[in-house]
Amino acid sequence: MQINVLEYFERGALAGQRGKTAVLDQGRSFTFDDIARSAKNCAALILEAASVRSLPIAVFLPKSAETIVADLGVLYSGHCYANLDLKSPIERLKATLNNLGASLIITSEAHAPVLHGLGVPEDRILLVEGAMQAGVRHDEAALCERWHALVDTDPLCIIHTSGSTGTPKGVVLSHRNTIDFMDWVFERLQLQGGEIIGSLSPFYFDIYTLELYLCLAKGATLVIIPEQCAVFPAKLLEFVAAQGINFVFWVPTIMVNIANQDLLSAFPVPGLRKIFFAGEVFPTKPLNYWRRHLPAAMFVNLYGPIEISVDCTYFVVDRDLADDEKLPIGFPCRNTDVLILNEQNLPVKSDEPGELCVRGSSIALGYWNNPERTAQAFVQNPLNPHYPELIYRTGDIVYRNPRGEIMIVGRKDFQIKHLGYRIDLGEIEHAALQVAGIDNACVVYGRDKKEITLFFESAEELSAAMIRRRLAEFLPKYMLPTTLHHVDQLPRNPNGKIDRHRLALRIGERDEA
Amino acid sequence: MKHSTAVTALAALLQEIRPEHDFTASRDFLGEGLLDSFDMITLVATLDKAFGISIAGVDIVPEHFRNLDSIAALLGKYAAAP
Questions:
Q1: In Å, what is the CA distance from A417 to each residue of A315, A479, B53?
Q2: Other CB atoms closer than 10 Å to residue A205's CB: what's the count?
Q3: Distance CA A269, CA A286 (A)
Q4: How far, in Å, CA of A364 to CA of B35, rounded?
Q5: Taking CB atoms and an 8 Å cut-off, how many pairs form between chains A and B?
Q6: Using an 8 Å Cβ cutoff, are A57 and A105 in contact?
Q7: Angle A140-148/A32-49 helices, nearest 10 degrees?
Q8: I need a surface site. Which of A70, A226, A351, A408 has the fewest CB within 10 A?
C-alpha cells in the first residue's frame, strides 16, 4: 500500500538504480544516490529550523537540481513544498508569501537578498547550499519516523495559479491525488524508466509533477533544458538531439513555433519516442507536421486544470486527423469520472455542450487559505444528494463527439491559456486599475494572434512604456498586455456592463474572448 | 534602410517592450539577461510587423540577437532579400 510519493523513490530508483544519473543540469550530473543524500540532509536542516508538520515550505530557487533536492527535503521532513516563480514581480511574490504563511523558505545565497528585501526574517530562510555539501548529515531513522507519520490525504505541494482578485490561488494537492495520477500514467502510457526527459517547463508548473515522479519511481533521467535553449527553437532541437532526449512533456506553444518555421527538417530529432503535451489546445495542422516528421513517436494530448492533479483526460493521437479537424481531449483517465453538466446541473444529452466537472481521487484538497474560492469550485456533486461527495467544476465547456471523445469548446469565464500559462483576465484588469491615470480597463484575448489587448479609459494621454513598467510591478511577464488601446469610453451593454464582445470584434476575434 | 537608422528604430522598439533596460548600452542582451523567452516572442513579432518581414526560424538564434548591431544586421539581410 502506497501512502507517500517518497515511496516511489525508496522502492523505485533507490532500490536498484542508486548509481544511475537522475538529473543533468547544465553540465552537472547527479545520481539518485546524490539526490537522496542531499535531500535527506536538507530534511535534517529543515527539522532543525521548523517543527510544525504539514505547513508549507516555500522554495525560492531557479529551475535546477537544487530545487529537486529542496522539494524532496521538504517531503522527507514531513512538510509540503510550494515552488515559487523567481521572476514573479515583487508585489505578486509578497502577496503569494503572505497567503502561504510558509514556516520556512528555502533559497540560495544568490537569491536570499530578494527575500531580505521583502522583510523575511533570517530565521525563516534556509540556504540550499548547506544541503548540497558532501557527506551524510542526517539521521535516516528519525526522518523515516517523520514522513511515515503522514497519511495519504496530507498535502504534498501547493501550486499557484492566476486569480481574478490579484492574489494567485494556491492549489493544495495531496499525496493521494498525485499517486492516483502517476500510477495511471505509468501503466496506460507505458513509462518504464528508459526515458531521458527533456524538461522545459518551470518547476512551479504541474508538468514537473509528472517529470519528477517518473524520474524517482522508474529511474528515468531528468535533463533540465537551459533557459537559453527555450528562447531559440533551433537551439532547443539541437539540444534535444545532442542529449539523446527521448521523452518530452511540453506546452504546445513552442512546438507550434517549430512547426510553423519548419525547423524539424533542418534540426531533426529522430530520438524522440514519446511526446506529451498539455496546457493549451494544439492546433491540428502543426501537430500533423510533427507526426509526419516523427511517425514512430507516440503523441498524447493531456488535459486538466491543476485542481485535478496534472491531468484528467487524455487522447493518444492514434488516428489520422484532417488539418482542420479539432483535436479531442479524449477520455477520462482511469479512476477519474467526468460529468458534463448543463446550466440546470443535469447531465447533458449525447452531444450537447456543458461544463466539464470531475470526480475521483485526483481532486485537489482546495485552495490554500481561501475557503470562498474553494467553495465555488469544489462543490457537492449535484447528482448525489445522499452523502458528501465533492466534484471540481473546471469552467471548461465541452461536448462528446459521435466517437465518444470529449471535445473542448471554450470557457464559462474570462480565463485564458497564453504561452501555456493559465491567466485570469480579471487579474490583468485588476493590475491595470492600479496604474495612475487609468480609470477603467478591459482585457481581451486574441486567440489567433495570441495577443493580450488592454483597452483603457484615461483622461490624459499615458505612455505605453509607463503603463508597462507599472503593470510589471504586479504581473509576471507572460501576463503583460501585448497591445494597448486608449479609448475615450469602453463600449457598454444595454445593462451597463462592459461589452467584451464588441471589444473582441475590434481586435478581429470571431468569438467572444 | 541604413544600418544606423535601423539601430535607432530598434532601440525605440526595444524600449517599448522592456522600458526598464538601456539597450543602447549593452553589447550582450542575452548574457546580461535583458531579454528572455517571453521578450523574444514579442520582439520577433514586433520586428516582423514593424519592418514588414517574416524572420525565419533558422535565423532566430543567439548570434542574431546579441545586441542592436547584430539585430540591425539581420534586418539588413531581410531588406536586401528579393
A1: 19, 10, 27
A2: 23
A3: 16
A4: 36
A5: 54
A6: yes
A7: 80
A8: A351
> Grid coordinates in use for A223?
535533463
Q: A356 and A338 in contact (C-beta within 8 Å)?
A: yes
- In the chain, the amino acid numbered A71 is D
Three cell numbers at B77? 539581410
- A419: closest CA among A444, A383, A450, A379? A450
Q: Chain A interface, mutation test: which of B38, B70, B74, most A Cβ atoms within 10 Å? A: B38
CB contacts of B15 in chain A (<8 Å) are: 465
Instruction: Write down the pTM of the prediction.
Output: 0.90
CB–CB of A319/A287 below 8 Å? no
Query: What per-residue confidence (pLDDT) applies to B4?
Result: 87
pLDDT digits (tens, 9 = 90+) for A317-351: 999 999 999 999 999 999 999 999 999 999 999 88
> Are A261 and B57 an interchain contact pair (Cβ–Cβ within 8 Å)?
yes
- Output the average pLDDT for chain A: 93
Q: Does B41 touch chain A (CB under 8 A)?
A: yes
Helix axes B3-17, B68-80, angle to 10 degrees: 120
Query: Comparing A34 with A474, which gets the higher pLDDT?
Result: A34
Give B14→chain A minimum CA distance, Å: 10
Flag whether residue B12 sits within 8 Å of chain A, measured between CB atoms.
Answer: no
Q: pLDDT grade, residue A54 (50/70/90)? A: low
B35 contacts on A by Cβ (under 8 Å): 231
pLDDT surpasses 80 at A249: yes
One-letter identity of residue A347? P
Q: Give CA angle at A295 (A290, A296), nearest 5°.
A: 125
**Cell 509528472 belongs to residue:** A210
In chain B, helix, strand, coil percent, each to 5? 60, 0, 40
Which percentage of chain A shows pLDDT scores above 90? Answer: 79
Name residue, grid cell 461527495: A389
Residue B70 to residue A351: CA distance in whole angstroms: 55
C-alpha cell at B52: 514588414
Return the SS3 of B13: helix
Question: What ipTM, to 2 d.p.?
Answer: 0.79
At residue A190, what is the residue type?
Answer: Q
Strands A155-161 and A125-127: unpaired
